[in-house]
């Protein structure tokens, strides 16, 4: 096992690159299952979830090479449509193979993803959409068994604009017979990039980036290459690392329009933000103002930034309320932040954060990906030493975050430990 040791109080200064987006790569990769050729995806982050998806697709018969952020995926020998529990339980995004396998091969057996650190994460919208497209769906011994001759286009409305269900339906509809309308679709940048990639393969999609997406099914799709978008959540996390330490940092290789809401909230908190087409600079100006946040689907404030915002508000002047409307119980980071001296009370799906003058280093434990990011941020600002256990969580979605923070002046190191 490994842990981080952070000696807090260093002001972060300088420039840092943002990696490719984990949550778009996790959709782009299974999308290549829709064709039987060789596809290349550039700007893929070196994070553990990508390696889990590589393992899963290799199990299906894909031949994948991953070298310096470039994924080469050859699907000419995909011959297995079973996604086993051993792999799916490690990563919910494995459900993204359902749509492509079903629409290309007429059969998919995918383990139910199970829960996650902060509670149930249903997949009913995915299954209802596949049924609407004509699939027979059975649940057997913890597996989804989906069968269909050729899927048929349908009109599908999502009561909740689910990112994953929108992605699965886009991929399934791309090879269905006839046209599909997705109403109340997710508009996250990761879904836009998936739709753009499918279009490059020959899919016929209108309304990309809107809540009404129309897909005209085609008979086959061809291999294509794609340059992945930057990771907007890593960008937001690094901006808060700069702000929580009173620093001045420039992010490179970022798409500012993907983080507009986060930038607005950071300005309200008293930071000076400047951006051009692929850089964002944050300058600290002294005190951190207390700013309430309510998470929402894109372009609202992302739930994946909720934990990081709570860490920042722990040191703000005054009280702020952070409400998560997407995942009402995503607050496992709160008791760990309290160990560092934060004053937070969780009331239903809100955290009421009373800013404190300072945080003090302690030993804390990661519980999930974004919770661990919030602990790193708090540790950077805390006086003294913070030790963060179970950092395998953070490695799922951040590429060697300690290296990036070190280049900005943080005193952080990754060490081996038998502590769990
Ligand atoms: C994606 O998960 C992201 N993961 C999550 O990021 C992110 O938190 C989430 O979108 C919301 O933005 C990837 O892209 C791999 P949803 P996903 O389906 O697709 C409910 C991270 O930290 N829902 O948009 O699973 C669900 O319970 C991860 O990088 C249903 O009710 O999210 C939730 O309340 C964590 N039925 C809401 O929709 C369904 O069938 C949004 O979920 C599906 C979802």
What does this molecule look like?
- The mean pLDDT is 96.
- 31% of the residues lie in helices and 25% in strands.
- The protein is α/β, with parallel strands linked by helices and 420 residues long.
- It contains 14 helices and 24 strands.
- It has helices at 22-31, 48-60, 85-88, 98-105, 124-132, 163-174, 189-201, 232-244, 260-268, 306-313, 333-339, 369-381, 392-395, 401-407, and strands at residues 2-7, 13-17, 38-42, 63-67, 70-74, 82-83, 107-111, 136-140, 143-147, 155-157, 179-183, 204-206, 212-216, 225-227, 248-252, 272-275, 279-283, 293-294, 319-323, 343-347, 350-354, 363-365, 385-389, 411-416.
- The protein has a four-stranded mixed β-sheet with strand order 22-23-1-24, covered by helices on one side. It has a four-stranded mixed β-sheet with strand order 2-15-17-16. It has a four-stranded mixed β-sheet with strand order 4-5-3-14, covered by helices on one side.
- The protein starts with a strand and ends with a strand.
- Helix 8 (232-244) runs parallel beside helix 10 (306-313) and helix 8 packs parallel to helix 12.
- Strand 22, helix 12 (369-381) and strand 23 form a beta-alpha-beta unit.
- The protein has two domains: 2-19 and 230-416, UDP-n-acetylglucosamine1-carboxyvinyl-transferase, Chain; 22-227, UDP-n-acetylglucosamine1-carboxyvinyl-transferase, Chain, CATH 3.65.10.10.
- The structure holds ligand EPZ.
- The site of ligand EPZ has 24 residues, from helix 1, helix 5, helix 6 and helix 12.
- It comes from Melioribacter roseus (strain DSM 23840 / JCM 17771 / VKM B-2668 / P3M-2).
- One of its GO terms (molecular function) is UDP-N-acetylglucosamine 1-carboxyvinyltransferase activity.
- UDP-N-acetyl-alpha-D-glucosamine binds at residues 92, 304, 326.
